[in-house]
Amino acid sequence: MAKITFDARKVQKLLSENATGSADDDSVKFPTESTNFSFCSCNLTDFKKPTEILFYKGLDPVTLDMSRNQLSGLPDNFWHFFFLKTLDLSSNAFKEFPTVLCELMELDTLKFQIIN
Q1: What does the pLDDT look like over 45-79, one tens digit per residue?
Q2: Fewer CB within 10 A of the terminal residue: the chain, N end or C end?
Q3: What's the CATH number where 103 sits?
């Protein structure tokens, strides 16, 4: 299984190219099979950018690392990632547990914390 790691610059570049209909970013080779993705430390405040990238490419992540960002919630459509087995949401700004995670039936590992 392949692992793809994003940084804040690469996320922004991919989204701007996808919005203009440009060709794919050659620096990121997207596999056709399920993959491990890391958006760790990308300074994300919401899940919109990763969702756009993963949905745009039609990818089903098995492992998703969203740690060390500034996320405080997840979108209602997060259940679309029903193939997820491992999800890391640690070191974010969550104040409550996102109930949409209860819909991920394949999820067997979750790293999560609530910030007081």
Answers
A1: 888 777 777 776 666 778 899 999 999 999 888 88
A2: C
A3: 3.80.10.10
Smallest CA-to-CA distance from 40 within 29, 50, 30, 55 is with: 50
| Sign of the four-CA dihedral 25, 6, 85, 106 | negative
Asked whether the beta carbons of 40 and 11 are under 8 A apart, the reply is no
Is residue 90 included in any domain, yes or no? yes
3-state secondary structure of 86: strand
Residue with tokens 């999560």: 112
For residue range 13-54, list pLDDT tens digits in order: 665 655 444 444 455 555 555 578 888 888 888 887 777 777
Task: Please tell me the chain's helix, strand, coil percentages from 3-state DSSP, rounded to the nearest 5.
Answer: 30, 15, 55
Quote the number of domains for the chain. 1
Q: Where are the alpha helices (DSSP H) in 8-47?
A: 8-20
**Residue 91 CB burial class (10 angstroms; 0-12, 13-18, ≥19):** middle
